[in-house]
Amino acid sequence: MIISSQATSTLFSKELTLLLALMHMPSGEKQLPIGNEDLKDMDWDELLVLTRHHRVYPNVYDKLRQMDDERIPAYVIKQLQKDYQRNTFSMLHLSSEMGSISKHFEEADIRVLVLKGPVLAEDLYGDVSLRTCSDLDILIPIDNLMQAEAMLIGLGYVKEDVYKTILGDWKWRHHHITYKHPQKGVKLEIHWRLGPGPGKEPTFNELWEGKRKCSFAKHPVYYLGREDLLLFLASHGARHGWSRLRWLADIDRILRQDLAYDKLKYQLKKYSQKHIAAQAIILAVKLLQTPITSELESIAMARRGENLAKDAYFYIHQKVNLHTDPVPEHISKYHKRHLFSLMTYWQKALFVLSFLYPYPEDAETLKLPQPLHVLYFPLRPFLWTWRKTKKHVLS
């Protein structure tokens, strides 16, 4: 199978096509990579909307400001410049807080791996100003969660997420918790897993063994090894339907780096992620013209990769936003089906079986003393039926 470097979808608007062309255009080009006929009736305001929705305006501005093309309206460059400058200040602020947080965690003897944020911008783009980021994501061992929370509260952070939980289901039904600093305006996500269950993933100790050290931070800051980072970025992008092209740009960048393919293929097989990586590679090649090597092509041939890549067009061409409630019902239904399609057979089996595990709603329906919570297992089908029946009657 030879993957074409051209998108197979005809759903993309003229503005989205231009955005993709700008994203994969080499730096230093003086003219837009598009003809006059294709620029006819171009909606430049829509292009600005797309750069903001997909969070790629720093990179697009960096390309456009080097051009000498009179066809680009001056106000477009000016608006992108404002967005770029605002993002630069934000990233520098996050970089400072990232170093401070890492220092506090080290002093508390808590190991920390930074998942995204400024370290990702520096590693993939060579400049923290060329990637957007709205918060800090860090991974710590699950045994250190309570200690970390106490420390963060002492530093002025406020816990935003309060999960309802029963019989320890939070450990696998969720994978992170959010804190925010009201004065600094920084949002921090503490992860104890790379992604929600059910599913196998590397242990913290395994990820720690392959860690890398950030090159620009004053205080030691550690982040994922290259192959571990690729697995995390591919899984994260897939889980969000690649609804932000920023995530695909990250894949394009990391695929251009030197990867240990033997290690990568071993991990993809071990953690049942071959089809996820295939989806990411196919989308990067087709939409961003990422160079395809024989090693990447062998991974992209994984079963279901092509169909999963086509599924992502739904999110990209519609500017789907999964982060702002309420999500339209037709999008919500599509996304639930897409998430299920990402699972392997055994993951689907575990997912279905997980409905038999008690939910916090069961304890609200029938209150039992803590020592008797184990009874929610046999009672769950009856409690679920009761709630559904009651809801139907009320409606």
List the helices and strands and how they pair.
Elements: H1 14-24, H2 36-39, H3 44-53, H4 57-64, H5 74-107, E1 113-114, H6 118-125, E2 136-139, H7 145-154, E3 158-159, H8 170-173, E4 176-181, E5 186-191, H9 204-209, E6 212-213, E7 222-223, H10 226-239, H11 245-255, H12 261-270, H13 274-288, H14 294-300, H15 305-317, H16 329-341, H17 345-353, H18 360-365, H19 376-394
Parallel strand pairs: 2-5
Antiparallel strand pairs: 1-2, 3-4, 4-5, 6-7
Helix pairs in contact: 1-3, 4-5, 10-11, 10-13, 11-13, 13-14, 13-15
Strand order of the largest sheet: 1-2-5-4-3
What summary fits the major beta sheet? Answer: 5 strands, mixed
Query: Cα distance, first to last residue?
Result: 53 Å
Oligomeric organization of the protein chains: single chain
Roughly how many Å is the radius of gyration? 23 Å
Order of helices and strands: HHHHHEHEHEHEEHEEHHHHHHHHHH
Highest CATH level, the class of the domain at 89-224: Alpha Beta
Strand content: 5-15%
Helicity, as a percent range: 40-55%
CATH architecture of the domain at 89-224: 2-Layer Sandwich
- Please tally the β strands and state the result: 7
Mean pLDDT: 93
Tally of DSSP helical segments: 19
Shape: globular
Unreliable parts = none
